[in-house]
Amino acid sequence: MADEVLSQNEIDALLSALSSGEMDANQLKEEEKDKKVKVYDFKRALRFSKDQIRSISRIHDNFARLLSTYFSAQLRNYVHIAVASVDQIPYEEFIRSIPTKTILNVYSVEPLDGRIIFEFNPNIAYAMLDRMLGGKGSSVNKIDNLTEIETTLMSQLFEKALDNLQEAWGSVVNIDPMLEDFEVNPQFLQLVSPNETVVVVSLDTTIGDSSGMINICIPHVVLEPIIPKLSVHYWMQNENSKERKPEEYESISQNIKQTTLDMTAILGEASITLEEFLFLGINDTVVLDKSIDQALTLQVGQEPKFLVQPGKKKQKIAVQVLDEIKGGDQDDE
């Protein structure tokens, strides 16, 4: 029941009754305390807790970062995507909130039941298409007459982005998303009943000079099997279980040992003028700062690590390590 708004005459009458003693303010307060009824709208059933909504928001924060990187690489343009809001609403309300003509992608997310919807605002979708076709990324709404080639290009771009969705949800469940349908009219999409609760994740998206929203609609039936995993308790347990096992350390150690390094033996250094360098000729000698009996420096990458002496091994030029060069915080530990 909606709150009633009093007219000015009704307010004046109420104040007059209170001042004359016809009504007792304390009695009104007691009657207010006795009211234990809480208004509840069954059409907007809240089936997810705030804790679970925060977990979904956390997952899609990661997804937004991955998607920004992916689209930036594919479109070769500035792309910024961030979570704007995460709400639970009836499916019918979601359908009414999006444009009558827009870009809709329907994905299955096996092994979870049901399907999810990605709604790309036409401003964003056409900016992407224009960049793919070599343009500057300008947005021209021509959704009523999309060609088959344009539809295919958009579908391929959105389908390849599913790897990012799979990675973002990987901490909770391993999904295998697949593009099942491409639609422009939301009235043709009846995935669930109108009153079914859905989670709508809105991503604020900027591509070059164009901006708009990407809306992700996830029905309750999709998330129902994994709802227990969307709690803080599960996330904390998952974080604690990330401690590596001994066999994992052994595997990492073996892989590190097989890593190749660039090593350079420095015979010596010399300083000459530019004029001397320009007039260098055959049989000229450049004197280095190392004598023949001094150890050479062996660099790993750009860092000096060992003192070595040159020689041969199996008719190949080689060096023998004499000592280790210690320096820096890591070597002192």
From TrEMBL:
It is a peripheral membrane protein. GO terms for molecular function: cytoskeletal motor activity. This is Flagellar motor switch protein FliM. Keywords: Bacterial flagellum, Cell membrane, Cell projection, Chemotaxis, Cilium, Flagellar rotation, Flagellum, Membrane. Belongs to the FliM family. Residues 255-325 form the Flagellar motor switch protein FliN-like C-terminal domain. Its main location: other. InterPro entries: CheC-like_sf, Flag_FliM, FliN-like_C, SpoA-like_sf. PANTHER family: FLAGELLAR MOTOR SWITCH PROTEIN FLIM, YOP PROTEINS TRANSLOCATION PROTEIN Q. Transmembrane segments: none annotated. It is found in: Bacterial flagellum basal body; Cell membrane. CDD domains: FliM. One of its GO terms (biological process) is bacterial-type flagellum-dependent swarming motility. One of its GO terms (cellular component) is bacterial-type flagellum basal body.
